[in-house]
């Protein structure tokens, strides 16, 4: 699907052999009669016929591309099969893409996953630029992810965190290590489920394990390379033979059925109760539907609601859980940092027995720790691709319409031209720094920037800060094995190995 998705099938050679048989004669015709001439492109490595530069990407493309940029410069051209792709690797070039030329490249390429999994672009993340996108983004910003709406879910977050803390306390009593990676994923998924549907997994007819199983499989197939995205005319044959199309369809149906059932349950509940209970996101969307609100030229339908829910779950669960997992891993690897951040939190909160949202404002060192985690472990190492809609220049090179454009945020975070000792975990580097995370500091882009920046930034940051502050306030954490920082391949920056730590009760919780 994107640069970050080739890795997942890089060893599945049968589809490629099929392509090699089908495409050579057609490629000759295409190059001879149809291929336009492009001049003054950004430099890049030599490419192979048919495959382009796919063979060079490896399992972690953001690292490979960074290495290529060291040779060719901060703006490079690579080819994913027949698809011309430009990747930028510096804050200056990222600013050119995301700010100076935001309006020239704020659409999305027409990816196969958009059609097969994201309701043909009815959500937000993969929707092409236009009136519909502006309307659905406005709806998300004003109705779903506003500060007021995010604050309305505070009680739910506290309840889910209490469940997580109870589980950790049980392990602390026995001195047993916990799989913190799995626990954080379940916690974020359960909170997101309640925020969207107004119920926990238990009340949804789908237990924790089953929901996470479906969600994990969905993320796996979303991140898998699709031949159709680099060979638009013929790649669908490969995707069908390889089983990718079937896997996507199966995962999509499971989630789509779940969303529709939740929508129908909400309608029934409103008939019985009048809808006086706490409002969740489906309630908000159904209310807008009843008011005949339009997205583009069409009134909101159940399909629109399901599309928005799909975006929420795919983006919301993964990125928050990943950030907390990496943060706890880095803190565990750096006892000095753990002691310093825990001292700050415990001195700020005192003997109240719990961290409140008001306490978060004064936790400056913890905020530096989170920023440093984002710098080293960007949730999306390469931002979702944009597509050029008009001709413009980046660093003097010509970018043509139809070019896919990626920002390598991982490379920016590891650049010695931007950061001193870039591979070291040093939160203090942000002391007296004006680098922020809202999309205007191009050295650090955890939420993207510009017209495609994440509209749920405040909600995601609130979850991360509140959860980490409580985990570090109530518990000390013992390391029983070396903490790995190896990455797993994927669209998002997962840790390769689960994080196992032993929680130690220090401060009893007050409800």
Automatic annotation (TrEMBL):
Q: Which Gene3D superfamilies match?
A: Cytochrome P450 (1.10.630.10)
Q: Where does heme bind?
A: 454
The residue ranges crossing the membrane are 13-34
Q: Does the keyword Heme apply?
A: yes
Entry cofactors: heme
**Tree of life domain:** Eukaryota
According to UniProt, the name of this protein is: Cytochrome P450 71B6
Could you tell me which species this protein originates from?
A: Raphanus sativus
Q: Gene symbol?
A: LOC108810843
């Amino acid at each position: 699907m994107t640069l970050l998705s080739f890795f997942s099938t890089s060893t599945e050679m049968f589809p490629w052999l099929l392509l090699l048989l089908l495409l050579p004669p057609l490629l000759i015709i295409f190059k001879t009669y149809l291929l336009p001439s492009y001049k003054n492109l950004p430099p890049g490595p030599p490419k192979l016929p048919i495959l382009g530069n796919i063979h060079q990407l490896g399992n972690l493309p953001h690292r490979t591309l960074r290495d290529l940029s060291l040779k060719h410069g901060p703006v490079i051209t690579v080819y994913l099969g027949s698809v011309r792709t430009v990747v930028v690797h510096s804050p200056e070039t990222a600013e050119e893409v995301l700010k100076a030329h935001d309006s020239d490249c704020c659409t999305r390429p027409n990816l196969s996953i958009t059609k097969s999994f994201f309701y043909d672009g009815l959500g937000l993340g993969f929707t092409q630029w236009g009136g519909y996108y502006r309307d659905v983004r406005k709806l998300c910003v004003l109705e779903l992810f506003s500060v007021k709406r995010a604050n309305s879910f505070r009680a739910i977050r506290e309840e889910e965190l209490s469940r997580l803390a109870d589980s950790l306390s049980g392990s602390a009593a026995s001195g047993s290590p916990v799989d913190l990676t799995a626990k954080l994923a379940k916690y974020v998924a359960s909170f997101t489920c309640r925020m969207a549907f107004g119920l926990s997994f238990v009340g949804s007819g789908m237990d924790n394990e089953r929901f996470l199983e479906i969600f994990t499989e969905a993320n796996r197939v979303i991140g898998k390379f699709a031949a159709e995205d680099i060979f638009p005319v013929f790649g669908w044959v490969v995707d069908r033979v390889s089983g990718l199309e079937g896997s996507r369809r199966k995962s999509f149906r499971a989630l789509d059925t779940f969303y529709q059932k939740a929508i129908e349950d909400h309608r029934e509940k409103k008939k019985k109760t009048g809808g006086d209970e706490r409002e969740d996101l489906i309630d908000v969307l159904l209310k807008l539907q009843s008011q005949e609100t339009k997205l583009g030229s069409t009134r909101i339908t159940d399909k629109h609601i399901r599309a928005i829910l799909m975006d929420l779950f795919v983006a919301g669960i993964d990125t928050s859980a990943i950030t907390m997992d990496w943060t706890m891993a880095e803190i565990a690897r750096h006892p000095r940092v753990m002691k310093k951040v825990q001292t700050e939190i415990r001195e700020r909160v005192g003997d109240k027995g719990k961290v409140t949202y008001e306490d978060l404002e004064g936790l400056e060192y913890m905020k530096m720790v989170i920023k440093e985690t984002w710098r080293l472990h960007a949730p999306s190492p390469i931002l979702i691709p944009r597509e050029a809609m008009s001709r413009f220049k980046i660093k003097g090179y010509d970018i043509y319409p139809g070019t896919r454009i990626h920002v390598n945020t991982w490379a920016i975070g590891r650049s010695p031209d931007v950061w001193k000792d870039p591979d070291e975990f040093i939160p203090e580097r942000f002391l007296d720094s004006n680098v922020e995370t809202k999309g205007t500091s191009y050295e650090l882009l955890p939420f993207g920037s510009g017209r495609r920046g994440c509209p749920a930034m405040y909600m995601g940051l609130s979850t991360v800060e509140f959860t980490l502050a409580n985990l570090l306030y109530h518990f000390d954490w013992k390391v029983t094995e070396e903490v790995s920082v190896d990455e797993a391949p994927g669209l998002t920056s997962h840790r390769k190995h689960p994080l196992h730590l032993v929680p130690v009760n220090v401060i009893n919780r007050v409800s």
